[in-house]
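User: Fold both of these, please.

Assistant: Here is the first one.
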Amino acid sequence: MSRKFLYLTKVSLRKKFKTKWFVITNIILAVVLILLLNINSIVSFFGGDFDSKTNIIVIDNADSYDLFKQNIDSYASSLNEDEENLKLTIEKSNKSIEELEEALEDDEILIELNSDNMEYLTAKITSNKKIDTLTYQVISQSLNSTKTTIGMAINNIDATTLNNISSPITINRVVLNEDNNVDENMGLIMSSVFPTIILPFFMLTMILIQMVGGEICEEKTTRSMEIIISNVSPKQHLMSKILASNIFVIVQGLLLVVYAVIGLLISTNMLSSGMSLPSEVTSIFDSLVSSGFMEKLIYVIPLTLILIVLSFLAYSIVAGILASMTVNMEDFSQLQTPLVFLSLGGYYLAMMAGMFNGSILIRILSYVPFLSSFVSPSLYMMGEIGLIDIVISIIVLIAFIYLILHFGIRVYKVGILNYSNEKVWSKLFKAFKSKDV
């Protein structure tokens, strides 16, 4: 590797790292990621409280308070065993409803129980603001259970008989094709969790395409390209841009991981000091563990990282070759559109992978360069493909990179010093047909 090549690479890296834009952007990214990973602490700091309790005040005109309290405690305890973290307290009051309504606070719910000859039990629920769905569900179920018990006692119905009638039917499920037996919650997990994981890769790909093309276009616009190419070969020039840009996006990706780790460490310290995560977060994490998602990550992460690095190479090579045919940023914006759409298509295919259950088409797309880095990991997590399929995607991608380098250098060599105003696509096809190697 020549000194001129290393010098070009260092100059390109210096342009990327030693800028105010890089420093300011990373400060913003670090702050945003850390804040997002500690959103529960932020909400608590500004007045929110994930550990706050809802107090239920009961006016008992039906002599049913003890039974109702028993049902409330039972349902709330059942949910808390499932880590929903529902915190309810209940008390009986002898004050008038007008007096209680006047003094009712935001974290209080007033329930008036009344007897009824036809329906056995009726209830009036009063609150200052809308009751969250989970709390209202517990109250509603407790009231229904209380009403059922009262009705059974009045009509002398045996509890066992009623339970046998009202209990859900027993269904025995048999899955014949166990090789393709995927947890039914995986589709929901993939639609909510996986897009968040691949979003940074998608954004880094967009940055990479813009970076390679923008730098080459800048050198052509300022005519400095003529001086550079007179000292180094077009191949060395292209490879220096590709190497520098890939180093930059990989470093940027690692910085994002560092920011996330810092955010998680801060969040862990908060948890050790007594704070708790929102129930939605713990629920998603439990679903990930129970579905086998975490175990699959052990195998898929190394292969996915290889796919990502190879995809970065493929995107940057094509972006550099296309940029060599342009004379301004407007031309490059036109040429980079297909690359952007390919990347965007891969991102959406990864999100919608669950909709293509068993489809041969989506399996074929997992082998396609530019798409494989998005689609293959998501299909593997859903059980649609195996590790061998990801290996095939890697081999296909390596072969694709070799081909575009072999034939793309021809286009790059012809186009890098071409300043004609001919249509960009025409120049591209002519350069491809050229035998000037």
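And the second sequence with its predicted structure:
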Amino acid sequence: METKLEVKDLCYSYHTLEGETQALSELSFDVKDGEFFAVVGPSGCGKSTLLSLLSGLMEPEKGEIRIDGTDRKDSDAVIGYMFQRDHLFEWRTIFSNVSLGLEIQHRFDDKAREELMGMLDTYGLSGFLNARPGQLSGGMRQRAALIRTLALKPDILLLDEPFSALDYQTRLEVCDDISTIIRTRRKTAVLITHDLSEAISVADRILVLSSRPAKVKGIVEISFAPEFDRPLARRNAPEFSSYFNELWKELKNDE
């Protein structure tokens, strides 16, 4: 697979009146086209900072971020971002919520409407076009948030713990649902999570970060037999516990 995203020697520090706090130190890694890439590390190590830099919300102090070989600042690649909360507007219907990004970008034409309706139908929300977000379950709301993001046809999806606000059972079901959608559409995705089991259940590779300032401790390749092709199925695979123990050991060695 070709490289979609390349990060080289990335550094970032927060500056306050009290002084400087280094968040990231010399991070280097790459993400392949169509790969589901997860990032784990100790709490507060800078995982969300990394996503903000990848998305362009913040600029690195040092290092490079390249998309398809082009510096991110000069790239016309579309970056999709899913947050911990779905950020659906309660005063808008589900259909007007999922079409919001297209409206803002003045791209909501007949073709876009047809594609959006197709996604809503495929992912089980066509019967809720005129419903309000408060009428949907947490899982359905996250599915709507994903459709809103996919409607913009992003080249890369950034996922900042998008399942963490859900109860445990719903979280498992929604993770299985949404990650399968992303894989089916062959999107390049970068997931930030503190849940090792979640990372193993969805990822092709997992980047392990050290405590702050975050450095690359290692990258673990994840591979399961074809019959374990969905996240919930992976959790029942014999290799699952081995991957978990490997990641746990990496993180504990950092303490």
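The first strand starts at residue 3 and ends at 16.
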